[in-house]
Structures are given as structure tokens and as C-alpha cells.
Design a protein that fits this description.
The structure is a single chain. With 420 residues, this protein is mostly helical. It has 11 helices and 3 strands; from the N terminus they run E-H-H-H-E-E-H-H-H-H-H-H-H-H. The protein has a 3-stranded antiparallel β-sheet, covered by helices on one side. Helix 6 packs antiparallel against helix 7.
Amino acid sequence: MADLLSVPLKKPSEVDIVNPLKNLIQSRYSTADQPEDYSEQINEFSKLRNNAIWRAFEKYESSLEVIYSYYDQLVSLETKVPAQEVQIPFKWKDAFDKGSIFGGRISLTISSLAYEKMCILFNIAALQSSVAATQSVENDESLKLAAKLLQQAAGIFSHLKSTVMLSIQQDPTPDLNPDTLGALSALMLAQAQEIFVLKAIHDEMKDQIVAKLSSQCEDLYSECLKMFQRENLKQLWDRDWIATIAGKQAGYHAIAEYYQSLVCKSNKIIGEQITRLESAMELFKAAQTRSGKAAMFQDFANKAQRNLNEAKKDNDFIYHERIPDIKSVAAIGKAQLAKIVPLGYPLSQNFQDLFSELVPVVVHQAMAAYELRKNEIQNGEISKLRDSTQFLNRYALLVYNLNEYCSQTNLIFSPNYNAP
């Protein structure tokens, strides 16, 4: 492959989600006249979680659909049960922590579906990067899949960066730090642009296009390198990550110069062609030195060296053009095809909600508020009716007593009697 960097997965811990969910749903939704039993669905949900969190470590494309389904189920369930009442202690370990010699690891436990969702999203993006890294550069469909997954991963890390602190409301593990997530999003985007460069070369696109794509790739790796070298982050990464990024930044600058030299060659601008090839050779050597990989971009370096020898020979015998300084030549244009793909829902292709019959919590709360208000109105009206009934009863008793009194004193009484 193109020596892509893949993000390590967060390590989960097994938890009992069956009993807490069963108790919560029964207490919230089940009544004496309408008992609710979701035991089967809850057991399936538990199996789905176990399958998703452990299948991710197999790092196959088929594992993506499994973890997508679990994420979709989490999103759906979060709308149907009160988040503050979920008492499931989800524990996740930091993805970049190697542990000490005593076996200790950085971890965080939070009883929150939102936290579980954040960790699953991190692992989705990490798995996408791993699957992308296994794709072949010789196959067009593989290149398309790699570009798609890397852009989606960039979107997920970007989404996590902006939402994680609000979701968990406490200090996260280092892998979920917003600065870390921003750096990972930048890395995924740079690698996606790299895939577009490789596809353009594979498709034999015009030299000018490849040069512009490579120039943009160099810019993205340069920005990525700045983030990875921050003091609060650089201790997180594997030993060769920063070196690889620095090497690719120089390497894609070199490739941009190489392909721009081919444009100069086709336009018979031999002096500039030689300048760009000389610059490309220096950059290829810098890429190999920075990365610590002597073979990095070696095939391109060999092509550039052959072209440089031929160009110098032609210039010495035919053109005799002046060789300009690399700083004086026109800047190479840029073309960015890699984009951050926003997180969508659902992620899985055929998502089926296990709890489709559960009323969303907002609807349940609205219905509860409706029932409460209805009872208040009904009780108020009944109270008014009782008061009116008591008044009429007292009035009727008064009339009866007056009639009795009048009959005993030979007086005539009528409620409608008008005195003269």
C-alpha cells in the first residue's frame, strides 16, 4: 500500500447491559394494565455490542457493517431511554496508551450511552483507517474504497472533536482530547488526498493535474505535521508516525515538482525542467532522511534522476538554457479532492431498530405531561361539579325546611313568590 498510518482501537471492557436496561425499561414503560417485556430485544442488543467491539479488532471490511449497526442502535436507543437514568458503567481504555511495566493503563468509566457512543465512533474511524491501509494501489476499486473510508474517518474525528466534551462533561482520556481528534482528522484528510494522487497516477491523468494534487497533498501533510508536533500531543504517537508524516510532506512536494517538470518538458522549457528536477531530487532525499526509510518514494526518485540526466544532456548539447533558481519559478497550483465527509445516520445499510416499538423518550415525556395535565383538568372540573352539587343540595334543603315551616304556620311559601 502507500504506507498509510492506521489509528489504534480503543480497548473495551465487558459490562452487563441486560439487567440495567431491563429494569430501566420496565420502570419507565411497563404498567399493570400494559406490561412491557423487552428481554429478547435487550439480549440481542447485548450480543450486538459484544460482536461489534471485538470484531473491530479483526480489521476486515466486513467488520465495519457490524460496528455500524451497533452505533445506529445506540443512537436510536439514546432517544428512547432517559440518558441520565442509564446506570451501565461503560469502561474504555485509551487507544494510544501502551501501559506501564506494571500493566497499568489509562482508562475512563462513565455510566452514559453518550460516552459509549463516542468511544464506538472513535473505533469506527480507527477501523476505517485500518481497512483503508490494507487496500491495493494497483486496483481502482480499492483506491476508491480507501479514499471513501479515509474521508469518512476524517469526518468522524472532526465530529468527535466538536462534541466529545459536551457529551461526556468531564476530562477525557488523551485519545478523546479535542486536540488529538483534530490531529487525527487532519491525518485522515491528508491520507485521503494522497489516495487521490495515487489514483490520478494510476489513471494516467495529465501531468499538470497530478502536480496540483500532489502540491495540495504536501500542504495537508504540512498542516498535519504541525498538529502532531504539538507539545501536548507528540508523546502520544507511535515512534515513527511523526517521521512518516514529515517524510510524506517532503515526498509529495517532490512528486509535485517532478510532475511539473514533465509539464515543462512538454512545453520545451528545459531550464525550469532541470531546476524542478534538481529540487525534486533534494526533496526525495529529504523524505527518505526524515522518515528513516531509505526506500520511500525511491521509484519516483529513480525516474526523476533519469529525467534530470537526460534534460541536462539535452541542454548541454542543444538548448543551452539558463538554469533558474527554484525560488524564482512560478508556484505550482493546488487541487484538493479530499473532503471531510460529515457524519451521517444510519451508517449501516439495512439497520433494523431492536426497540422500534419503544416510544422515544421525548414523546413519552410529552404523553406523561399530557396525562398529568388531563388529570388536572378532569379533577378541576369534577371539583367544580361537586361544589355545585353541594350548593344545590343546600338550596334544596333550605327550600324543604321553609316549606315545612310554612305548612306548620299556615303560610304559603314559594321560591318564586314576589312580595307586594
